[in-house]
Amino acid sequence: RYLSNDRTCCGTGQWPQWPGIHTLWPIGCGHCRGGPMLRAVQSQWRFKTVVAAAAGGAASWWWLRPSDLPSDNPDATDPFDLRRRFVTTQRTVFPRALAEIEAGAKESHWSWYVWPTPPFVANIFGVDVELSLSPNNRYYALRDPPPNHKSGDAAAAAYITFGLTDGVDLRANYMQIMTAVAIKIEAGANPENLAGEADLPKLISSLKLFERVSRNGVDGEMNAVCRRTLTALDCEPAAPSTA
């Protein structure tokens, strides 16, 4: 129904750029692309994207409610379950992760527990919802206890003060790999090639979290490493937490 009487796109003599789908999808030819039909489609897709994000956030919240979070750990000395989630994995994975960064490119899957992030939360229609549907992202997120389970500041503070445990120092490992990231980028490495396109946002999110919780004299050495790496990535530090 989007074809004119002369069977071209809009009567200008130009055939649709994608004739196989044009009658089902009003993309338009080179003359009418960007017209009202395409704008209507774009508007419809924006609405569908918002609805899908809201639905995904609701599903994520239900699947991983506060009572199901790994921070509900009966060990009072480790309320954020850092030993099981990070120490155990880093004991075997960290040397390989550091070697990959120093070689110039992340190649295997370890970002969840080497540069951990806060929960991935977005504001949808005035409500903060967790959008991540990845089980690994949710499991390894640095998450505070309810009612602040959409923030990770307290968990990150515990992470950098956990100390040497089972031969693993989470704070030292974090500073070592972030320093390696900064050195490579300062030397001209492409951030996406170094961290991976999918993991670069996680890297930045992690740095902003740890920079924020270590500022104001809490941990000057950690803060300096995070700021150096954020500067290399051309990123600003995070705003103060309101949680």
Descriptors for this entry?
243 residues, mainly alpha, two-stranded antiparallel sheet, 4 strands, disordered N terminus
Order of helices and strands: HHHHEEHHEEHHHH
Q: Classify the helix fraction into a percent range.
A: 40-55%
Shape: globular
**N- to C-terminal separation?**
53 Å
Which spans of ≥5 residues are poorly predicted at pLDDT below 50?
Answer: 1-34, 36-42, 59-68
Largest sheet, if any? 2 strands, antiparallel
What structural class do you assign from the helix and strand content?
Answer: mainly alpha
Strand order of the largest sheet: 1-2
Structural account:
- The strands form 2 sheets. A two-stranded antiparallel ribbon has the order 1-2. It has a two-stranded antiparallel sheet with strand order 3-4.
- Helix 6 (153-160) crosses helix 9 and helix 9 runs antiparallel to helix 10 (220-232).
- The N and C termini lie far apart (53 Å).
- It has 10 helices and 4 strands; from the N terminus they run ααααββααββαααα.
- The chain is globular.
- A hairpin with a 2-residue loop joins strand 1 and strand 2.
- With 243 residues, it is mainly alpha-helical.
In short:
By secondary structure, this protein is mainly α. The chain contains 10 helices and 4 strands; from the N terminus they run ααααββααββαααα. A hairpin with a 2-residue loop joins strand 3 and strand 4.
SSE blueprint and pairings:
Elements: H1 19-22, H2 36-63, H3 82-103, H4 111-114, E1 121-124, E2 127-130, H5 135-140, H6 153-160, E3 164-165, E4 168-169, H7 170-186, H8 191-195, H9 200-214, H10 220-232
Antiparallel strand pairs: 1-2, 3-4
Helix pairs in contact: 3-7, 6-9, 7-10, 9-10
